[in-house]
Structures are given as structure tokens and as C-alpha cells.
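Final report, closing paragraph on structural work. Over the funding period we assembled a curated collection of sequence-structure pairs, and we close with a single example.
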Amino acid sequence: MSSHVLVLGGTTEARRLAAELVARPGVRVTTSLAGRVSRPGALDGDVRVGGFGGADGLARWLREHRVDAVVDATHPFAAAITANAARAAAATGIPAVVLRRPGWTPGPDDRWHWVDSLPEAAALLPSLGRRVFLTTGRLGLAAFAHLSELHFLVRTVEPPEPPMPQDMEVLLTRGPFAPDDERTLLRAHRVDVLVTKDSGGEATAAKLTAARDLALPVVVVRRPPLPADVTTAPDVPSALALLDLGPC
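Its predicted structure, as stored:
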């Protein structure tokens, strides 16, 4: 019998999972993207773009497309999507796995300041420095728009939209990044403090190594909590094992 797996994507892990699933006999995979990136890379299997209309809309889609399992492999900060997926899976009785790479852990030489939100990060910045390297994505810049006395170097994949800081320079690029390049960037822009989300993974971790090497403070936004009673996997092999779709 064939199986249909819906992958809620947008991450490196989602891409890897889709490739692994497509390689398995009798497995059909559909990856759903939110559509926030204008030119996503090629994906194995079927691809859909756009929202479902909340948890109820997702539950209808799961039933109509005869989905046998759901893997939420969205970004660790995509809290609304994760909550909707958990509710839809519970409503339909379809097995679901949340694929979340582990978060970052500070070392003894790191100068990390943990916060629970972007506004809390913004409130802390004036006490840490005036030149800020902001790597929290293009959708959260409004939290920093009032800090007119600070200079922001903002790195995003897509162009940001207002409201955003007045004194701001934008770098449009996509990881992975190398520690040497990150150190060069921090020095060239005379960065005083780095702000990031606890996204985890290797693709963008080099900035943390560079900040440590330069003894710079780092403001780290904690991940939102996962819904209660969800099944989680830290990597693609673990997610595949939980899906139990048979051998490749």
C-alpha cells in the first residue's frame, strides 16, 4: 500500500526529509511552503505554496488528500503553524511528528544574554552597544524601529519591509556562512553586539563562533514552547524511524 506524507517545510531538514521519503517505494510526499521566500530551492516530490486556513483548513486538506502522516519541519519560531498542525493532527487522528533540530548551547567563553522576545531583545540593546548585527529575520524588524540612536546591520534572505530601524544597512544573502567570513564582517562593520534567534543548526552558527572569538555580547531569543503532547525528532533519521514507513 502507498503512503502519503505531508511535510510542512521551509528548512534544510524538510528538504532532506522529502528527498529521503521520495526514495522509498510506495511513498508519496507533498511539501508545503508558506510562500515567504520568493525563490525556494528545488524540492523532491510534490510542492504546494500558501496557507491552509488555520487548523480547521489543514484538517480538511489532510482528509481530502488522504494524508497518512504529517511532519512539521518548519522553522523553530513558526509557532502558529506548529500549533495549527498539532490541532489538525489531533482532530483527524493522523500521526504527526515535529522535526526540530537542537538549539544552540553557549560555551564557557560566550557572552550570551537570553531573552523571551524581540521586544525584550530591543530593550536590552542600548546597554550593550550602539552598532548591532541583527539576524532575526525580516519580519521582526518593527520591534527595533524605535531605536533611532543605534545603527543596525540587518542580514536577511528577502528584502525587509517597514516598519524598521531608521539607521539600517541591509545584507541580502543566504547561509551557510564560514567563521572567517563572519569575523571579517563583524570587524568591517565595527559591530558591538549580535542579536539572533535560537534557530540551531550549522548553516548560521558561524556568527556565534565569530562573536565568541571577538568577545562580543550576543542577545539570543529563546524558542517558543512546543504544543503539549507532540512527538518530536531532533533529526531526519529519527523522524523517519518514528514514521515507520518501511525500508528505503
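Residues 18 and 44 are 6 Å apart (CA to CA). The mean pLDDT is 94. We thank the funder for supporting this effort.
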